[in-house]
Amino acid sequence: IPVSPSVAAVSRRKKRKMGMYSLVPKKKNKVLKQRTVLEMFQRMSQSPPNPQVRDRTTRFTLKDLWTVSSFCPPQSSESSLKKKWKKKVKGDHAWLRPSRKCKRKLKAKTEGLSGTVNVKRPVFLEYLLWCFLAVSGSVESTDTDMVQELPLCSCRMEMPKSREILTLADRKCMATESIDSQLSRCQSAVLKHEMMRPSNSVQLLVLCEDHRTGMVKHQCCPGCGFFCRAGVFMECQPEVNISHRFHRACASVLKGQSFCPHCGEEVSKTKEVTIAKADTTSTVPLTHGSCVPTTSEGKADTTTGGSTRLSILGEGKADSTLPKPPRSHDTSVLPLGSRTGPVEAGSGTGPPPGSIKETLESVLLALDAEKPKKLRFHPKQLYISAKQGELQKVLLMLVDGIDPNFNMESQNKRTPLHVAAEAGHQEVCHMLVQAGANLDMCDEDQRTPLMEACENNHLDTVRYLLRAGAIVSHKDVEGSTCLHLAGHFGHFGIVQHLLSTGLVDINCQDDGGWTAMIWATEYKHVDQVKLLLSKGADINIRDKEENICLHWAAFSGCVEIAEILLGAKCDLNTVNIHGDSPMHIASRESRLDCVNLFLSRGADISLKNKEGETPMECCSQNSKVWTALQASKKQREANSNQTGPVEKLLNRDIARGYEKVPIPCVNAVDSEPCPDNYKYVPESCVTSPMNIDKNITHLQYCVCKDDCSSASCMCGQLSLRCWYDKESRLLPEFCNEEPPLIFECNHACSCWRTCKNRVVQNGLRIRLQLFRTQMMGWGVKTLQDIPQGTFVCEYVGEIISDTEADVRENDSYLFSLDSKVGDMYCVDARFYGNISRFINHHCEPNLFPCRVFTSHQDLRFPHIAFFACKNISAGDELGFDYGDHFWDVKGKLFRCQCGSSKCKHSATAIAQRQADSTPGDQQPSALPDTSSSTPSSPS
User: pLDDT tens for residues 41-60?
Assistant: First the structure.
């Protein structure tokens, strides 16, 4: 018999914490005859199992007995959420059995009421006994012979595991979901073997973690045992943060009135709700076939914040509706957004900007028009809704105060912005960013949301994140940047846009030494290779095993890319750490087309790797590749008498890996070995105290927040102006004859390390080669085109004083620093030096020296940097003017052999000057007094 609410009844309502089932009333109005457990179960077995007819043996209103504590407030991480939950509920968790101490307390209370029952019972039997004993004295009855009750749901009860049921279930979840009146069986793996069920009329079930969570949240109907996941259901809300779902037909019926089968609330106080398929509080993402309810349904899920269109059905009509945006462009109404269709390469998959604006405006207007019922969301729901592009739900949850930076530990600590960017939901990304989402938040793999958007080819999302300020140079745990990821998957549009920003290093290497060009080469992205090459990508950069792009083109067998690389002056006979040339790899991989291409370009087929194998020995005998190599070998042997010396690779890298690019040494002139009478060092060194002022407090620095391109940059003002352009080259108006001092930004500056006023400190970036010349011993040539104004290398050696230089016998490698401040110093590259010690003199130089300051500003010790004074083609020898003072001393010992038509120090030119009575034709060099290597000596 339903009990009318009264003050006394309200006062008797007993709240309980989640997982505790102590239903002992505060006072007993009437003590009924005590019954044994056997008698109680006999009465229960006689009751009808029909969920619509639930007559029981006691009358009461469970609303007086059932109140559940609210969920934990939002946390910024799943781990902190769990910790606070454990602290709050301690031993009273819904899925944990009562502790021994708790059992003894409850048992003592039970014995105090009954006085006779003192037997050991299973936990569930004790729970049933407590329910009956508590209810028996809670409400006075006018008919003691006819006692009826509404059953209390057991959604939060956990039963001992059963080996038989677990075996029958094949260790798979036994849950059945009700989705739009269609039933589907869950087949997820079971982690916990303890059983659960919503009521006694439903069989015990072994559930997966997802459905165990749904059971505890009362999402399983006690009448039929089906989980109410999607469709039209009844919903009871005893508190704003608690909801009970059940089918209308499964409501408990008592004396013609219907009640909630979970808590006993009258059905008239419940409401009918519609739950969309995309909505779930589970941590398991939904399938791609999720649908969205139409606006004609006029219903919304009030538990999770509503479906894609907000409207609540009450009294048979809609209370609020949301204007429907254009369906052809609105990705926010689709559960999976852009993933519902194929992704086109090179194009963004997001909706047009106008559609996004309309969608956002409609959502905001709907939110402003009506304050929705205060709902409580789990932070995990924001992650799921962001992943599926549910813009309105995301907005409601953000308004509700859920942390937009909440990270899912079970999902690699990714945030909602990660999954929104991964799916290309630009409008969701915008909402999250406006709510304070960290643009550069990293997951466990150090991936940022921008990297997810680049990898999945969402161009519009990439553009938005970059405009919002996302860092494009960030690296993940493997050292990959956004450019690497886009290059790997061949997303042409993404690569093109990243390069257009000017914020990426096109030659940046990951932890394996791979550049975007290498990734594009291996995966045969021809258009991308052409794009990167046109933007200045270096095709000769080596990876960790010293492979260049041509090695990977041979490995993949892409002849078109191999031809492009060879056309860009890629070294055909370069070898990796194993001694393999591209021909070795093409032969080993049976890439016949590449082998024929390399043979036509003159590849060395006699070159042996570290295993002593030639390309012919790397392939199967009598194969097509072997036959082609054999034929080429015989032809070359026949022509060997008519050809000159073959170029020999003496050293694959004279820098021994100390430079960012290797410097090979070759000889096609004589039998001279690679020079080894010096120590290669990448930076100038000292052998005696020089007292260089490196005190950071003595540095002048800039406070720029941009790329130091403004006139207010202090470092630029010290240099008269910033002389570098965005390509890290000197401006055309830079004076080569009388170059000013250049002060680059230093570690005391506030600007980024990637600002444009940092060039020389970035080190050697140009592909150079040490080779044997015909007339001048060793020389240096470039393996790539060098535009005018490009930094080539620094003159490196031992810093000594002028006094020390005067007593040294061999002064062929001295370069005066010409500081004009205090004592004089010079750099001697005789015993310590880099590739610059081999650069010869040229009367028509293509390089010029300039004094540059980087890590310190001690004017006595500038860096001597060589820049290109004109465009230099690949294969050209490098040279600079040694100065007239050098030839005044050394001209008595040898003559210049540069071969220029304007040579001033050749034997012919000197004889002409001696015969000429007007020596005024000579023009003094404007360069500092320098000395360098003697052309006739290899050392």
Answer: 444 444 444 444 333 333 33
Phi, psi of 348 (to 5 degrees): -75, 150
Ranges of beta strands (E only) in 531-641 are none
Res 885 pLDDT > 70: yes
Mark whether 378 and 454 lie in a shared domain. yes
Is 766:659 a contact under the CB 8 Å cutoff?
A: no
Q: What is the pLDDT of residues 681-725, one digit of tens each?
A: 999 999 988 889 999 999 999 999 888 988 899 999 999 999 999
How many angstroms separate the CA atoms of 308 and 292, rounded?
7
Residues 7, 601: Cα–Cα separation, whole Å: 99
Structure tokens at 701: 């620095």
If asked whether residues 438 and 513 sit together in one domain, one would say no
Total of domains in the chain: 5
Instruction: Looking at the structure, tell me whether residues 530 and 588 fall in a common domain.
Output: no
Flag whether 318 is in a domain.
no
Q: Say whether both 25 and 148 belong to one domain.
A: yes
> Which residues, other chains included, contact 749 with Cβ-Cβ below 8 Å and sequence gap of 6+?
701, 702, 703, 704, 708, 715, 755
Same domain, 461 and 491: no
Together in a domain, 633 and 772: no
Q: Are 183 and 176 in contact (CB under 8 A)?
A: yes
DSSP, collapsed to helix, strand or coil, labels residue 799 as strand
The pLDDT-based confidence of 376 (bands split at 50, 70, 90) is low
Secondary structure string (H, E, C) spanning 241-259: CEEEEECHHHCEEECCEEE
Amino acid at 828: D
Range of the domain at 789: 665-921
- 103, 305 contact by CB (below 8 A): no
Residue 43, classed as helix, strand or coil, is helix
Are 334 and 380 within 8 A, CB to CB? no
Do 116 and 49 lie in a common domain? yes
- Rounded to whole angstroms, what are the CA distances from 870 to 651, 848, 876? 29, 10, 12
Backbone angles phi, psi at 343, to 5 degrees: -95, 125
Q: Which residue has 């060793």 as its token pair?
A: 778
Our CA angle for 714, 727, 838, nearest 5°, is 95
DSSP alpha helices (H): ranges in 299-415?
A: 353-369, 379-387, 391-399
**What would the pLDDT profile of 499-546 be if each residue is shown by its tens digit?**
999 888 899 999 999 999 999 999 999 999 999 999 989 888 889 998
Asked, for residue 389, whether it belongs to a domain, the answer is yes
Which residues make Cβ contacts (< 8 Å) with residue 912, sequence separation at least 6? none
Side-chain-facing half-sphere of 261: CA atoms under 13 Å: 32
Q: Return the structure tokens found at 274.
A: 């519609």
For residue 779, give every residue at least 6 positions away whose Cβ sits within 8 Å of its Cβ, in sequence order, or none.
Answer: 770, 771, 772, 773, 838, 839, 840, 877, 878
113-122, 552-561, 862-871: least confidently modelled range: 113-122
Closest CA to 35 of 116, 92, 141, 107: 116
What is the number of other CB atoms lying within 10 angstroms of the CB of residue 340? 14
Cβ contact 77:409 at 8 Å = yes
Q: How many CB atoms sit inside 10 A of residue 591's CB?
A: 25
**Helix, strand, or coil (residue 677):** coil
Question: With contact defined as beta carbons under 8 Å apart, do 675 and 720 qualify?
Answer: no
CATH of the domain at 627: 1.25.40.20
Selected residue with higher pLDDT from 92 and 610: 610
| 304's tokens | 């999770």
Give the per-residue pLDDT at 362: 67
298 within some domain: no
Hey, which residues does 318 pair with through a beta bridge? 313
pLDDT band at 569 (very low <50, low <70, confident <90, very high): confident
Residue 658: inside a domain? no
Residue 519: phi, psi to the nearest 5? -60, -45
